Amino acid sequence: MEKILSFVLDVGSYAIKGGPKYKAWLYFLILIILGGSYTAYKQFTEGMILIGATDQVPMELFFANFIFTAHVAAAAILVVAPGYFYHRKDMKELAVIGEIIAFCFVATGITFILFHMGRPDRLWHMFPGIGYVNFPNSMLIYDTIVLNVYLYLNLIGISYILYKKYIGEFDTVALARWFTPVIYLAIIWGPLIHICTAFVLSSNARMGEWATAVLPFGFLAMAGASGPSLVILLFLLIRKYTKVPVNDSVIDLMSTIIGWSLGIIILVFSAEYFTALFSNTEHAASLNFSMFGHNGLNMYMPWFWGTVGSIVACFIAILIPKIRKSYDRWLPLLCIMIFLSILIEKPMMLVFPAFSPSPLGEYTEYHPTLIEYSNVLFTWAIGFITLTLMIKGAVGILSGEVRYKKTTAST
Amino acid sequence: MSKKMFEANVKANDINKSRRYFLKNVGIASTAALMTNPAPAEATASVANPDAEITVAESLQGHFVLMSDKEKEKAIERLEKRYTAKYGKKTTVSDAPAPDGVLFGYALNISKCIGCRRCVHACVQENNQSRYDPEIQWIQVMKIPKGNFSFSADKLNKGYPESSKVGDHGVQVGGNAYTPVGGLSTEEAQNYYTNEEAVPDKNYFYVPVQCQQCEKPPCVKACPVRATFRDPNGVVVIDYNWCIGCRMCQLACPYGARRFNWGEPNLPPAEMNPKTHYFGNRPRMRGVMEKCTFCLQRTREGRNPACLEACPVGARKFGNLLDPESDVRKIIATKKVFRFKEEMSTYPKFFYFIG
C-alpha cells in the first residue's frame, strides 16, 4: 500500500516538473480548460440548442471528433504489436507509450460522447443491470462495450508495467504468464473498437454516404495514418528532451506504416468514389454535394478538395526517403499535416455533408457555434493534458529517474 | 427572432380580451422576461427551469414498461403534479393500455391534399410541441413540382460524347438528361414554402410526411436503451423519461420523422393541452427525442388523430388494419396504394394512395 502511494506521489510530482516550455504548455492547456468549463456548464444546463446541430444535421463536431479519437486510440496498438508479436527489442520498452496514447484517446472520445448526449444525466440507463440495454440490436451498445473494455485493458497494462518497473520487480518471465495475454487481447481489441465505430455509422441504411462496406477499412487505414503521426511526434519529442532511447528504426517503422496506410486510404476511397460516381445514383448525392456543392451551397467544396489534395500530397511526400529521414524538420511537419488532414476530414467530409440530402431532400450547411468550438477545445485540452502528464510520468520511470528505492533513500 | 414573431402572432390573435387570451399573454410575457433577464428568475424558478422541478424520484425512475403497477401509478402522479403546477391547469397523464386486436394504419390521398398544413398546426396544438426555439412540428409537407417541361427538340442531337475528329459513335447521354419530371421524388421537394402562399398551387402536388409507424422500424433497432419501441398496436412510441438523447434513432430514420428537443421546450401554458398520455403528448423535457404517435392519447380511446380531424379535404383516413370494414383496409383493397421509400425495407403502416 505504501509502495502504491509513493508510486502515485513520485510519478505525479515528476510529471508536473519540467522546463519553461513544458510549463507553458501545461498552463496553456489549463487556460483552455478553465475557459471551456464555462461553456461546458452552459451546454449542460441550457441544452444542445447552444451548438450548431439541427434535426437536419443531428451529428455535431463532438461526434466527428469522437470518430477521430477512435482512429488514434486504435492505432496506438501499432506501437505495442511490433514489440510483442515480432519481439522487436527497440519497440518493447516503448510499448507502454502506445498504451498511454490509446488510453488517453479513448477517454477523450468518451468525453466527446458526453457532450454529444442530450441527457448525459441519464447515462446510467446504458449500464447493464440497473439500465435496460438493447443488446443484440443496437450498434451503439457494442461500441460502448468495446470502448470501455479497451479503456480498462490499457489502464491495467499501463499501471502494471509502470508500477513493476517503479518498484524494480519487472520480471519478463513472470510477466509472460498473465500479462502477455492481456496485451494480446488489447492488440486485437484495437481494430475492434474501430470496426464497431464504423458500424455505428454504416448500419444506417438511409445515410447513403455511410452505408458502405468500405467504411471500416477506410477507418482502419485512417487510423494507421493519424495514430502513428502522433506517435512519431511524441517519440521525436521524447528523444530530444529526455534520456529514454528511441532508435531511428522505430521512427522508420512508424513512417512506413503511415505510408502504407495513406496508400490504402487512397485506394479505398477511390474504389468508393468510383462505385458511387460511375452510376451516380442517389447514393452519390451527398458525395456530389461535398465535391461540387448544390445550388450555390458549396461550403464543403474547398474542404473536400483540400483534404483530398493534402492526403495525396502527404502520401507522395512520405515516399521520398529524404523527407522520411529528416527527423528534425520535414518528418514532424508532415506528421502534423497528416494528423490535421484526417482530423478535418472527419467533420467536413465524413459527417456533415453526409446529411444532405436529408430524407426529404433538404440540403443543409453546418455552422458550429462558438460554444461548440470551445467545448471541443475543452475536451481536447483535457485529453492532451492527461496525455502529457502520463507520458511525462512514464518517461521518468522508463529513463530510471523515478524509482522506489531512490525516493526512500532521499526522504 | 422567432420569439418576437411568435409574440407578434399572439398579439394579432388577441382581438377579444377574454380571460383565455389574457392568460396566454401573461404566460408568454413572463417566460420572455425570464429568458432575457435571469435575475428575477429565482423568484419563479419553477416556470423558468422546469428541469429543476423534476424530482429525484423522477430522475431515478426506470423504464416505464418494466415498472410494477404501483411504480407506474406513482410515476404518473409525479408527472401530473409537476405539469399541473407548471402550466397552471389540471393535467391528466393517462397510461391507458393498447387495445387488443388492433393494428393501427393510416392512409393519405395525395391527389386530394392541398398543402394547407392545417394538419401540421392541429398536430402541434394537440401534441404539446415546443412552439419556438426549437420550433417542433411532427408533420412536414413536401411541395413537389408536378412536371418539368424543359424537354427540347433543340437538344435532340446534343449531349455527351460530342462528335469529334476521333469519331462519331452516337450520343450516349442525351441533352434532355438531367431534367427531372417530378413524381414522388424528394429531389425537387420544397419543404419550406411560406404560410402566406396560396395553396394549392396548380403546378405542384403536396405530400405530407410524418412518422410512418414502420412494422420493422430502424429507429427501434438503433436505440441503445430501448427507450423507443413498437407498442402492441404497431405504433412506435418513446418513453421520454428513459431517452438518453443519443439521436441514433434520428440517424436511422429514413423518413426524417424524429424531432429532437435541442433546448428547453417552449410551450405557453395557455396553449397547453392538459389531456395527455404517458407515451403520447405529455410535455417533453430538454434533450429527448419525440415524434408522431398517431395521437396515441386519442386513438387508444377510439378517437381519430388530430391531423385527420383537421384535414379540410378528407385526404386522411385512419383505422384498424385487422378490420376488413375499416377505411384503411377498404382503401388498400380498392385504391392505388404505395408505401414511401419501400426500398428501405421498413414496411410502414402509413399508406399513400391516389384517387
Describe this structure in words.
The complex is a heterodimer of chains A (411) and B (355). The two termini of chain A are 18 Å apart. Chain A has 411 residues and is mainly α. Helices cover 73% and strands 0% of the residues of chain A. Chain A is globular and about 70 Å long. Chain A has helices at 2-15, 20-46, 61-75, 77-85, 89-92, 95-116, 139-166, 172-202, 215-241, 248-279, 285-292, 300-319, 321-324, 330-351, 370-398, 404-410. By secondary structure, chain B is α+β, with helices and mostly antiparallel strands. Chain B contains 12 helices and 14 strands. In chain B, the strands form 6 sheets. Chain B has a 4-stranded mixed beta sheet with strand order 12-2-14-13, with helices on one face. In chain B, helix 1 runs antiparallel to helix 2. The radius of gyration of chain B is 24 Å and the shape is elongated. At the A-B interface, helix 7 of A face helix 8, helix 9 and strand 9 of B.
Tell me the layout of helices and strands.
The complex is a heterodimer of chains A (411) and B (355).
Chain A: H1 2-15, H2 20-46, H3 61-75, H4 77-85, H5 89-92, H6 95-116, H7 139-166, H8 172-202, H9 215-241, H10 248-279, H11 285-292, H12 300-319, H13 321-324, H14 330-351, H15 370-398, H16 404-410
Helix pairs in contact in A: 1-15, 2-15, 3-6, 3-8, 3-9, 3-14, 4-6, 4-8, 6-7, 6-15, 7-8, 8-9, 9-10, 9-14, 10-12, 11-12, 12-14
Chain B: H1 2-13, H2 19-36, H3 45-48, H4 50-53, H5 56-59, H6 69-87, E1 92-94, E2 104-109, H7 118-127, E3 140-145, E4 159-160, E5 173-174, E6 204-209, H8 218-222, E7 228-230, E8 236-238, H9 248-252, E9 259-260, E10 275-277, E11 289-290, H10 296-299, H11 306-310, E12 316-320, H12 327-334, E13 336-338, E14 350-354
Parallel strand pairs in B: 1-10, 2-14
Antiparallel strand pairs in B: 2-12, 3-6, 4-5, 7-8, 9-11, 13-14
Helix pairs in contact in B: 1-2
